[in-house]
Structures are given as C-alpha cells and as structure tokens.
Amino acid sequence: MAFRFPNDFLWGGATAANQIEGSNTTDGKGLSTSDVQPFGSFGELIPRHGGDFNIKDIAIDFYHRYPEDIKLMSEMGFSCFRLSIAWSRIFPQGDELQPNDAGLAYYDKIFDELRKYNITPLVTLSHYEMPLYLAEHYQGWTSRDVIAFFERYARVVFQRYGDRVKHWLTFNEINVTLHEPFTGSGVPRGSSPQQLYQAIHHQLVASAKAVKACHEMVPNAQIGNMMLGAIQYPLTSHPDDVFEALERNRDWLFFGDVQARGYYPSYMKRKFRELSITLNITEDDVQSLKETIDFVSFSYYMTGCVTTQKTNMTMMDESMFKMGGNPYLESTDWGWQIDPKGLRIVLNELYDRYQKPLFIVENGLGAVDVPNENGDIEDNYRIQYLNDHLYQVGEALQDGVEIMGYTSWGPIDLVSASTAQMSKRYGFIHVDRDDQGNGSLARKPKKSFYWYKDIIESQGEGLVAPKQ
Ligand code: BG6
After folding, report:
1. For 28-58, how does the pLDDT look when each residue is reduced to its tens digit (9 = 90+)?
2. Rg of the chain taking only CA atoms, in angstroms
3. Does residue 319 carry a pLDDT above 70?
4. For atom 8 of ligand 1, which residue has the closest CA?
5. How far is the CA of 301 from the centre of ligand 1 (A)?
6. Which domains occur in the chain, in start order?
7. C-alpha angle 434/438/440, rounded to 5°?
8. Which residues are named in the active-site annotation (predicted)?
9. How many helices and strands, by DSSP H and E, does the chain display?
10. Among 310, 305, 307, 304, CA closest to 239
11. Which of 298, 416, 426 to mutate to test the pocket of ligand 1 (most atoms within 8 A of CB)?
C-alpha cells in the first residue's frame, strides 16, 4: 500500500564545504585539515606545496557555481539542502578574535540563494575539517582552548545567519574521531585512548556550548548532533556475540547518549577504568553538557557484523571500521554492505533510546557511472538503492518514529571524503570531472534526478516495495 510521508517532511540532499566548494584559499580562507589530505581522510597527510595537485582545490567549484546547482536542486523539488560552513573561511587560523568578513559574505550569498527557492538550509558547523592552524598549534581538540574558539565561531555564524538558518548541526559524524582523529578533530594520529577521549570530551562540551548559544541567539531554531549510524549485528546467536554487538554499538551511541541526555552514560565508567582513562572534567563542563540537542541526526550507509566465535567471518571494509561481513547482504563497488532494512532498525533503535525527532542527513550509493551511447547516465542501481532505503524510512514513519527529513548524500557528484575520488559518485546530477581533474565541470541530470523529483512530488507515494 502506498504511503504518503508527512507534509512537513524535509526532502533534499547533503554536502560538505571541503567536498564541493574548492577555492580553498580564496577570499582570505585559511587551510583546513582537509586541505592537507589530498588522498582523502584515510590517506596520508601532505603539507601543501605550490603546484601540488589536489582535487579539492577546485572540487566541483560550488564556490562559483552555486546558483546553477541550487537551481537544479530546486527543480528536483528540494525543500532542504544540507551544507557545511568551512570554519577556516570564517576564522582562517581558528584562534583570531575577529572573523573574516569575506568568508561571512560568501555564505550570505548562499543562504540568500536558498531563500529565493524556499529551500531550508541545514547547516553543519564542522564537517570533517577544522582550521589547520589549530591542528598544528593546539593539536586540535586535544586542547581545551579550542572549546572557546569553536564557541566564538558558532556565535558569530548564529548571529550572522540566524535570520535565515533555523536548522543546525554541530559536528559531522562526531564518533568518527575514534577511528580517524585528524580529519574532523585535528588530533594527531596515534594518540592514546586517554588523549583521544579527552579530545572527544572537549568536542562534546563545545557541541553543548554551541547548542546553548543557538538556543539563546536563535530561539526559533533547532540544533542537532550528527553521528555515523553504523549499527553492528551479532554474527551468531551466541550470547557472547550479542553482548559484543551491544558494546560495539555503544562505541558510537555513547556520543548521542551524552549529547541527547546531557551526561556521560554509566557504562563508560567500566570502559574508562579498563582503558586506564581518567578524564579531566570540570564542574563547568558538567553544567555545559546539560544543554541537550533538539533532534538526533545521523548518516546511514551500511551495517556490519561482530563475533567472538572462531568463524570465517570476512571483513568488509578495513579502511572505515573493522566491520564484519554479513552473509545475507551485498556490497557496493567500494565494499560497503547494502542494508535498507538496517535503516528501519536504526531509526527505531534511536527513537526508542532518545525519544527525540530524528533526521537522516546522509544516505546514498557511491558508484561508478558510465554514460550510455547518448551520453546519458541511466543509474538504475542508484534508484534501486535509494528507493529501498526510503521505503524503509516510510516503514519507520509508520512504526511511529518521528522523522524530520531525509537528505541523500551528494545530490550532485562531489569529491569522496575517504578516498578523494570523483569517480565515487553519489549524485542525481553528474559533474564532468575525473579523478585527475580533467573535465569541463558541466552539470547534467542523471535518470535518478527525475526519479527523485517524482518521489518528492508524490511525498513518497511513488516508492515501491523492495523485492524480497
Ligand atoms: C560520510 C561523510 O562519512 O560519508 C561524508 O560525512 C562522506 O563526508 C560520506 O562523503 C560518503 O563517504 P565517501 O568516502 O564515499 O565520500
């Protein structure tokens, strides 16, 4: 039976500044942690030298081409566009007292353009980057000083854009700091668990301070967190596997538990004891953490399995997390297991746990697109993937889960975060650029563009039940 999503459900797509904008030293912008990772967030860190090729220097040139891109999103019927502000455009070093006017003026133009089309911006304050200077001189979030720098930045952007931006997110995939500490958090790779969790604590406090500032300064706004929602299943029904899965899921749910409840969950006491971690938590930190998020947001790409048994479990994607393969699931070209039903599971779990509205702010299929003889991209595989996931969102809505919206990842082809490839494409809109940087940057709708337009227009009624 066809199901109609609620009228106020936000439909759209999601991006990050460093994966689309390019122009990463234009108008006074400082370098960010992303700018020294030309091979992606799991690649080497390479200091910038003039003339070195880095695909992100131009990315898809959203910096200049945003009017065309936003127009195309509007043609698809987007009611929401998720983007991030590059912190280093506003505070090039990160520790200045005054912001960079040219950086502020740039995002004015973006938000004005979105308003023109009645598209609600959903803005991430920090998406897998921070000013490089903070990483080099403060070891990123290792330093408590960064809390104040981030709060200053957040207050500046709330003040400036609060009239037009009513939906905010603090840190993108905050739980990934555990697995890749440098990209989003500027924390040196190889840091000890003690250093890592102290840096994470600083980020959690900063997130809560941003929530407080947002509540004070933009009273009619809503601000959420953002986690990578990669749920793990027990591979077998052995109780040890079930408990192992519970613990692995706590690794990421811990972040939401603090951000949504306002204090550290009790299960962390044992973990910290076993890892010999003693955190420096001040009374001011305890008070700050009490300011909780309004909604919970997450990305969803895959699920994995864990086991304590001596089995032949294959590992799925070593670079991301140590996730085990699931014999019932197929994988993408990049080895990410496709699990639409898992999205319904995550939605139900998170809603049961937090009783706060949820927002799916990333989901999508990274695939190689090959144009047909007419030069068109018939991305039926992407349509299938998105249909099957959105169908489960519809099921979750019918389960009673409160869901604010869905922004698919990379509505327009962009640079991959983990591998810095252009060829790992997620878009409804093709961008003519390859991994070596060749191409005209011209935009062209794919078949999925028209499919998504129809789904949005029908409020989800056009989704079809996945084949069993
Ligand atoms: C999420 C990130 O982890 O996954 C995005 O928030 C990223 O920045 C997306 O692009 C997809 O990952 P990738 O590596 O395919 O770009």
Report:
1. 999 999 999 999 988 889 988 877 899 999 9
2. 21
3. no
4. 417
5. 9
6. 10-457 (3.20.20.80)
7. 100
8. 362 (nucleophile)
9. 14, 12
10. 307
11. 416
Please compute, for residue 45, the number of CA atoms within 13 A of its CA located in the half-sphere on the CB side. Answer: 15
pLDDT band (50, 70, 90) for residue 305: very high
Pocket perturbation via mutation, ligand 1, pick of 318, 409, 412, 416 by most ligand atoms within 8 A of CB: 409
For residue 447, pLDDT over 70 is answered with yes
What is the arithmetic mean of pLDDT over 354-367? 98
Average pLDDT over residues 234-261: 97
C-alpha span between 288 and 212 (Å, rounded)? 8
Compute, in angstroms, the gap from residue 45 CA to the centroid of ligand 1: 18
Q: Which atom of ligand 1 approaches the CA of 419 most closely?
A: 14
Distance 241 CA to ligand 1 centre (A): 28
DSSP classification of residue 150: H
How far does the centroid of ligand 1 lie from the alpha carbon of residue 15, in Å?
9
> Residue 430 and residue 449: Cα distance in Å, rounded?
10
The catalytic residue positions are 362
Q: How confident is the model over 189-246, as pLDDT tens digits?
A: 999 999 999 999 999 999 999 999 999 999 999 999 999 999 999 999 999 999 999 9
- What pLDDT band is residue 346 in, cutting at 50, 70 and 90? very high
Q: Which residue has the least CA distance to atom 10 on ligand 1? A: 417
The pTM (predicted TM-score) of the whole model is 0.97
Q: Please state, in angstroms and rounded to a whole number, the distance separating the CA atoms of residues 343 and 359.
A: 12
Q: Which atom of ligand 1 is nearest to the CA of 301?
A: 4
Residue 134's identity, in one-letter code, is L
